[in-house]
UniProtKB/TrEMBL annotation:
This is Dipeptidase. The keyword Electron transport does not apply. Gene3D superfamilies: 3.30.70.360, Zn peptidases. It comes from the Bacteria. SUPFAM superfamilies: Zn-dependent exopeptidases. Keywords: Hydrolase, Metal-binding, Protease. It comes from Salinimicrobium oceani. The keyword Hydrolase applies. Residues 199-357 form the Peptidase M20 dimerisation domain.
Length: 466
């Protein structure tokens, strides 16, 4: 029997090579031209599960991109871990800001990753982190160290809102039955500061269209006399936040959970260096909701952001035009106990009410999901805590994240089990940005930590039964 550290050390080059192969397939879920690539990625994931020791692995078609399911059941009386991850990635745009092509992985050193990092779209979010679980399974099965049953559910639509995963779960509740859901699709505070994500924000993603005159007009002949939809849209958007950066949609804060002073003080103990944060982003000052710290603004408070805005002439040179239409994509990050459908309705009603008579507005909802918060006084958290303590030599810090994995709240509701979010990415890994990367140290440390979770979880669960 080899211990996990040795096993990782002996096989690390192959682990990196295999991930690189997976990263070469452009599994961009948002773009229908890549449908075949998503299928190919699903096939590759399925094969990797079989190679790692799953006795069953299958591809489930959905109305969208397929879900890969795999399992190894060793004993019905033992607990079952369900691993969730996603094999789809964000579009790589803007392409010209990549230092190497997004689907042609290269290894380079960075300040945070002196051991090297793999640069490619999806390296950290989430192919690299998902694949840690496949390699952890390989270690456990090849060395007779799998202490419980394991199931995998790897989807291809996370980056576009997991539209069909709810449907898949609903249809396969029996198959997906488990004792804990394990996910690596978040980050950690720092390499020397392991952390477990205990909160995720919800999301409500909207699109608005403002229409003025029935055609583009000459901005000299009509300008000043006919409403310009871009001007109007800008004013409408600007009014959505007041001078304290409070969101002005009536009822928006009604269900926002307020944390006690004691809870806020506890959260503020997490290491955070504001000067370093500003320096890394090359900004002079941060901004945000009055009365809250930067960490709080980016985790336990809701937000409203324009993600894209367009209309009129954006080509080379200058064209004098008063456009007929203007558009924007607007997202709101939500916290418990806000309901994303209710917030989408409140937004729609308010945005429509803001429009002057000179324009028409159309508001549509793209997708959304509920926020997620988990307590830390649970058996599941304790198992994760013990796994990190063993791998890192210190206890992890529980941390609320600002990101969203909308399906997590649904998992708990439908499958009635707790979720553990074991993330190994760093904030500097540039997920969703050009030059996304994943540290090789982080990748290998993840592979090393995961089997320890299985071990501690099974031990605690068996002890509870007695
Ligand atoms: N893995 C991320 C979410 C994440 C990243 C959570 C880092 C915490 C820390 C996930 O793939 C993601 O990008 N989610 C989307 C939401 C989705 C509906 C498009 C997001 O947060 O924007
Ligand atoms: Mn992800
Ligand atoms: Mn993502």
């Amino acid at each position: 029997m080899q211990d996990i550290k040795n096993y990782v050390d002996n096989h690390k080059d192959r682990f990196v090579d295999e991930l690189i192969q997976l990263l070469k397939i452009p599994s961009i879920s948002a773009d229908s031209r890549y449908k075949k690539d998503l299928l190919n990625t699903a096939e590759a994931v399925k094969q990797s599960l079989l190679d790692a020791g799953c006795e069953l692995a299958e591809i489930h078609e959905t109305p969208g991109h397929p879900v890969v399911y795999g399992e190894k059941i060793i004993d019905k009386d033992l607990p079952t871990v369900l691993v969730y991850g996603h094999y789809d990635v964000q579009p790589p745009d803007p392409l010209d800001l990549w230092e190497s092509p997004p689907f042609d992985p290269v290894i380079k050193e960075t300040a945070s990753h002196p051991e090297g990092a793999i640069f490619a779209r999806g390296a950290c979010d989430d192919k690299g982190q998902m694949y840690m679980h496949v390699k952890a399974l390989e270690y456990m099965t090849k060395n007779d160290q799998l202490p419980c049953n394991v199931k995998f559910m790897i989807e291809g639509e996370e980056e576009v809102g997991s539209e069909h995963l709810g449907w898949f779960i609903e249809k396969n509740k029996e198959k997906l039955q488990n004792d804990v859901i394990l996910i690596s699709d978040t980050g950690m505070i720092a390499k020397e500061t392991p952390s477990i994500t205990t909160g995720l924000r919800g999301l409500s993603y909207m699109e608005v269209e403002v229409t003025g005159p029935n055609r583009d007009l000459h901005s000299g002949l009509y300008g000043g006399a006919v409403a310009n939809p871009i001007n109007v849209l800008s004013k409408m958007i600007a009014s959505l936040q007041d001078e304290n950066n409070h969101i002005t949609i009536p009822g928006f804060y009604d269900d926002v959970k307020e944390y006690s002073e004691a809870e806020r003080e506890k959260m503020a103990e997490a290491p955070f260096d504001l000067e370093d944060y500003k320096k890394k982003l090359n900004i002079e000052e941060v901004q945000g909701e009055k009365g809250y710290s930067t960490l709080e603004r980016a985790s336990i408070r809701p937000t409203l952001d324009v993600n894209g805005i367009w209309g009129g002439y954006t080509g080379e040179g200058a064209k004098t035009v008063l456009p007929s239409k203007a558009f924007a994509k607007i997202s709101m990050r939500l916290v418990s106990d806000q309901d994303w459908k209710k917030i989408s309705e409140l937004f729609t009603k308010h945005f429509e009410s803001l429009a002057p008579k000179s324009v028409k507005v159309k508001v549509t909802t793209h997708h959304g999901g509920q926020a997620y918060v988990t307590p830390i006084d649970t058996l599941e958290y304790k198992a994760a805590n013990d796994a990190y303590a063993e791998a890192f030599g210190k206890d992890p810090i529980p941390q609320h994240s600002g990101g969203s994995i909308p399906i997590v709240a649904l998992f708990e509701k439908e499958l009635k089990s707790k979720t553990i979010l074991m993330g190994f990415g760093l904030d500097t890994d540039a997920i969703h940005s050009p030059n996304e990367h994943f540290g090789i140290w982080n990748y290998l440390k993840g592979i090393e930590t995961i089997p320890l979770f299985y071990k501690h979880f099974t031990k605690l669960k068996q002890a509870e039964k007695k």
